[in-house]
Amino acid sequence: MQLDFFNQGLMSFLKRSPTPFHAVSNMESALLQAGFERLDESVEWVLKPQGRYFVARNGSSLIAFSVGDNPSDGIRMVGGHTDSPCLKVKPTPEIKQKGFFQLGVEVYGGALLGPWFDRDLSIAGRVTFLNSKDQLSSGLIDFERPIALIPSLAIHLDRDVNNGRPINAQKELPVILTQLGENEDISFREILKSALRDTYPDIDVKKVLDYELCLYDVQPPSYIGLNNEFMVSARMDNLLSCYIGLSSLLKAVGAEGGSQEGGQIAGNQPACMLVCSDHEEVGSQSAEGAQGPFLMNVLERLYPDSQTRAQVINASMMISADNAHGVHPNFADKHDNNHGPLINEGPVIKINANQRYATNSETSSIYRHLSEQLDLPYQSFVVRSDMACGSTIGPITASNIGVRTLDIGVPQLAMHSIREMIGSKDAFTLYKVLAHFNQKRNLKVDRV
């Protein structure tokens, strides 16, 4: 696979995945095409030696795996998260004011709010409804075109706006959807009913009961820079890592770029697993989040015997892939001088003495060794000693199942903005190392 081909696939995935539900649906389609079998948590699993499978929970988290031929090799795990900071539509969102019809929104995660103003916004997500037979159903919708806006207040009416005035999320973020006449009324659920009928013309939608909907910027991902050095898009944190993990898994099972008959991998391969969890941006505490039981539930069904499962986990390794803070040239002093990752200089090993990241010297050394075998660059990040450190699913997974873990990520700028920026080389570099990682049978570190 070549760099531009990989990046074009990444940008297509980002564009087609405005919500975690859409991201999981797109990954499911790719896995089915590659010969993976869909599993249902509500029925008994019959797993074949060297088979490959996937299972989704809540439609927003996904675990895909191949069954290795030797449990003593452990599992090569790659983890990411499907959610991104955004604005979500409230349950009763209708606001009518001065002839405008607006929607009330709630901030999801640690979003940078300023960049949401004056953007062409659309709405996508999951809607649950009753059909004409009074049966409950859920479906995905995406308006795709720009239908909403949060206009800024003119500077003439807000002279202090450039002096650090805070944004009031309750008052200033409701989006404008349309205009109404003096005696005109409108229901957002009726709008959704119409959208469902357009999306699923064969289903008679009787009543919309509830929804989980995100606003998103319709501007597509693209290269930027005089020489296309950079890529910009929404939701790079962290759909970027989901795509890298998916691509490296497909590479490991020999199904990259197409299907493979039989749903099985060649022998002499370690087991590989992709774990894409929802709700990381709000703490991961949900049935489908990394703090929940989803991963352990899958491991228990994959290895029902507790002794075998413990041995497998002991021989396994998780790479938690979540984007890293690249050095911003206008704010270089926000980084430790010796640990400031540069765009296009390689993936970033994330280290924190207080276990905000799960990396230790052995997991870091394994990654460094794998990169050097491929002659690929890598960097390291430690937050300034006078600043607080963020975290990832890495420490959560490590503590939940006891697996040795590495935290790593592609360096990016504008993290948690509506439009984020990475180097055009770094995602492909991480993909190549993770594909190599997935095919390594022995990751043992001898202690002398």
Radius of gyration, in Å, reads 23 Å
> What proportion of the residues form beta strands (DSSP E)?
25-35%
Q: How many individual helices?
A: 10
The rounded distance between the terminal residues' Cα atoms is 40 Å
Overall CATH architecture of the largest domain: 3-Layer(aba) Sandwich
Q: What's the level 1 CATH class of the largest domain? A: Alpha Beta
Instruction: Write out the CATH superfamily name of the largest domain.
Output: Zn peptidases
Major β-sheet annotation: 9 strands, mixed
Query: How many domains is the backbone divided into?
Result: 2
Q: Find the CATH topology of the largest domain.
A: Aminopeptidase
Mean pLDDT reading: 95
Which parts are unreliable, with pLDDT below 50 for 5 consecutive residues or more? 259-265
Helix content: 25-40%
Tell me the overall shape.
globular
Q: SS-based structural class?
A: alpha/beta
Number of strands: 20
Order of helices and strands: HHEEEEEEEEHEHEEEHEHHEEEHEHEEEH
Q: Major sheet: order of its strands?
A: 1-2-3-13-4-14-18-16-17
Would you give an account of this structure?
The protein has 10 helices and 20 strands. With 448 residues, it is of the alpha/beta class. It has 2 domains: 3-84 and 234-438, 3-Layer(aba) Sandwich (Aminopeptidase); 86-217, Aminopeptidase i, Domain 2 (Roll), CATH 2.30.250.10. The strands form 3 sheets. A 9-stranded mixed β-sheet has the order 1-2-3-13-4-14-18-16-17, sandwiched between helices. A 6-stranded antiparallel β-sheet has the order 8-7-10-5-6-9. A 5-stranded mixed β-sheet has the order 11-12-20-19-15, covered by helices on one side. Strand 5 and strand 6 form a beta hairpin. Helix 5 (236-252) packs across helix 10 (426-438). The protein is globular, with a radius of gyration of 23 Å. Residues 259-265 have low confidence and may be disordered. Its cofactor is Zn(2+). Keywords: Aminopeptidase, Hydrolase, Metal-binding, Metalloprotease, Protease, Zinc. Its EC number is 3.4.11.-.
